[in-house]
Specification:
22 helices; alpha+beta; 13 strands; membrane; 58% helix; transmembrane helix; 4-stranded antiparallel beta sheet; 5-stranded antiparallel beta sheet; transmembrane; Ion_trans_dom; ligand-gated ion channel
């Protein structure tokens, strides 16, 4: 039988709430927030999602430039840029709110961390000075709307599209660094406060997959912008070679804002720049390297969704293969980008596999631990050469315990919780089950029921397992929740006597222990069991041990009430068996007495009516003498039984009314 120990009765004051106590008339902008409170915890989760959105949105600016295939020029997709600007502006607003909240969030004084959590500093001036010295500059740099300003104000003022591409890439890269510096400490704070980023293993695995996909998105968007830059570099080199021609090449011709300039159409008809810089014709003097698919597949002039998913696929493929699929040229920028993709893919892929393995292994850790224990149990049984039937019983019990508990050690979990929370948990788990027991349903004292709930021990039994044998000490009362038990007795080994009953959900056994616990003069020795209790199938029950039952009996005098005593006698199968035997014995004595009286009456009537023969008078006297002797013996036996019972009662110590009466003499 397996036990899972439940905590004892203890009441402690309810702890204060985690959030700071504020006056109800304080405004929200004047409050000081607890860094470990519920509000800050939820806000950190929300801001983490906002930061991930920011890391996703910023590379989308790389997809704004595009090449007009028919016009052979570069332009910006301002409709798409407007959508990104609105999205990015909302993120920046939340970032500024985060800065304000950090100005109103308390911190733990470093010199107070000697014991416990430490003392929180709630002075707004000290909080502001500390934040200005530590992370304010990084948070402000990450929240500034620099890409929006450059897209709508700076880029339209520059002369060429090449300068626009350079400006976008420079601003995004500059602001991407402080955004990463914001998200990593935020991730650390969430882990420090709550223990984990994701509450479930699958959510944690999905979180790291999302980070991997985000890295693929960044690589793909950067590859697209570098491809546009590579195309412009080719145009610029070939344009510089056309000098002594009728219509010379000008760099402004590659900007779609100058397609209507005079002389551009004539230049398009005579120039060799476009044919020499076409990736589809494999130019001899210029190599596109890893950027060739952007032009051969028409990515630079495709729609947004076609462009985005192709770039995402390229980044995902490059990271997953550590850049082995990239065919670079001799360009230094291209080679460095390929090296960064290779190293970044290696590091990010290792982080993904490691963290996902950690999260996914946590889902099967209990199962693997159970498999190891089961294997050790099998090896131990073979080493000790246990009989096959005993091995089967051990296997059934181990299997049943796994199905009932799933390998969770409830005792360790409950032991780590405060006592008041443990009491509430036990009330939630056990009170409804305790009230299903008819004996406990008669109790109207909630405090008594709470005390019983907190001292209950979960008991698991498999088919054929003996909970207690007749004559063994009783060390617990068992209350059946699921399954059936067989309770039998031979009345101390008396030949020809056997009584058996079935205990179903709601019944209990081991009631001798309650009599022992309610007896003030009871010694340390436990009472002996008068019955043998055996599990007929898998049984789940709650057990109340001897020391716990005595503690409850001493603390709560309501157990001594007559109402509970009568309810105990009524629902106790042991008392019911004794009552049935007592009634049966009384009925048999009554039948014997009636039979003797009937025989005496019939024999007296026979001798009274017999007037023939000389010996009639002598026979009648003899019959009366026999009836007198029979009645004397019956009276003597009856008096002997009464005197014996009175002597036993007089010599016994005073017992409570719940003490089991003497068994009737069946001899």
């Amino acid at each position: 039988m397996s036990y899972i120990r439940l905590p004892s009765t203890t009441i402690i004051p309810k702890p204060p709430p985690t959030n700071f106590p504020h006056h109800s008339n304080d405004s929200w902008w004047t409050q000081i927030f607890d860094p470990g409170g519920q509000f800050i915890t939820r806000w950190n989760y929300m801001f983490l999602i906002t930061c991930l959105n920011a890391l996703f949105v910023d590379p989308l600016y790389f997809l704004v430039p595009e090449i007009a295939r028919r016009k052979y020029c570069m332009r910006s997709d301002y409709g798409f840029a407007a959508i990104i600007t609105v999205w990015r502006s909302l993120i920046d607003v939340i970032s500024f709110i985060h800065i304000f909240i950090k100005f109103r969030t308390a911190y733990v004084a470093p010199n107070s961390r000697v014991f416990g959590r430490g003392e929180l500093v709630m002075d707004p001036r000290k909080i502001a000075l500390r934040y200005l010295r530590t992370g304010f500059a990084v948070d402000l740099a990450a929240a500034l709307p620099l890409p929006q300003l450059f897209i709508w104000f700076v880029i339209p003022a520059v002369s060429t599209a090449a300068h626009a591409n350079h400006s976008i890439s420079l601003i995004i890269i500059i602001q991407y660094i402080p955004r990463l510096c914001v998200i990593f400490p935020l991730n650390h704070r969430i882990t420090k406060t709550t223990g984990v980023i994701a509450k479930t293993a699958w959510a944690g695995a999905a979180y790291y997959i999302m980070l991997y996909m985000l890295a693929s998105h960044v690589i793909g968007a950067s590859w697209y912008l570098l491809a546009i830059e590579r195309q412009y570099s080719c145009w610029k080199e070939e344009c510089a070679k056309e000098k002594n021609v009728t219509y010379p090449c000008h760099r402004v011709y590659f900007d779609c804002d100058h397609v209507d300039d005079p002389g551009r159409d004539e230049w398009l008809q005579e120039t060799q720049v476009l044919s020499n810089c076409s990736a589809e014709t494999s130019p001899v003097n210029f190599t596109f390297g890893m950027y060739a698919p952007a032009f051969t597949e028409g990515v630079t002039s495709a729609t947004f969704f076609e462009k985005y998913f192709f770039c995402f696929w390229f980044g995902l493929k490059s990271l997953s293969s550590y850049g082995q699929n990239l065919e670079t040229s001799t360009s230094i920028e291209e080679t460095l980008f390929g090296c960064s993709v290779c190293l970044g893919g290696l590091v990010i892929f290792c982080l993904l596999i490691g963290n996902m393995q950690t999260y996914l292994q946590s889902t099967t850790a209990r199962l693997e631990e159970w498999r190891v224990k089961r294997r050790d149990t099998e090896e131990w049984m073979r080493h000790r050469q246990l009989p096959p039937d005993l091995q089967d019983k051990i296997r059934r019990f181990v299997q049943y315990k796994w199905l009932a508990t799933r390998g969770v050690d409830e005792e360790n979990i409950l032991r780590a919780l405060p006592l008041d929370i443990r009491r509430q948990i036990q009330r939630h788990l056990c009170l409804a089950l305790v009230r299903r027991v008819p004996f406990f349903s008669q109790m109207d004292d909630d405090q008594l029921l709470d005390a019983i709930c907190e001292h209950l021990v979960q008991s698991l039994s498999t088919k054929g397992q003996h909970l207690v044998r007749e004559g063994d000490p009783v060390n617990e009362m068992t209350f059946v929740i699921r399954g059936q038990l067989e309770s039998s007795t031979t009345n101390g080994g008396r030949s020809g006597f056997f009584n058996s009953i079935t205990l179903k959900p709601g019944d209990f056994c081991g009631e001798e222990l309650l009599t022992w616990a309610l007896t003030p003069e009871s010694n340390v020795n436990l009472p002996s069991s008068t019955r043998t209790v055996k599990a007929l199938n898998e049984v789940e029950a709650f057990a109340l041990r001897a020391e716990d039952l005595r503690f409850v009996a001493k603390q709560f005098k309501r157990l001594h009430s007559k109402k509970l005593q009568h309810a105990f006698r009524y629902y106790s199968h042991q008392w019911r068996t004794w009552g049935a035997c007592y009634i049966q014995a009384a009925w048999r004595r009554h039948k014997r007495k009636k039979l003797a009286e009937e025989l005496a009456r019939q024999e007296g009537l026979y001798y009274y009516n017999d007037d023939d023969g000389d010996g009639g008078e002598n026979d009648q006297n003899a019959q009366h003498l026999g009836a007198t002797i029979l009645a004397s013996r019956f009276a003597a036996n009856t008096r002997k039984g009464i005197n014996h019972k009175e002597g036993v009662v007089a010599s016994a110590p005073p017992m409570p009314k719940l003490f089991k009466p003497n068994e009737p003499d069946f001899s």
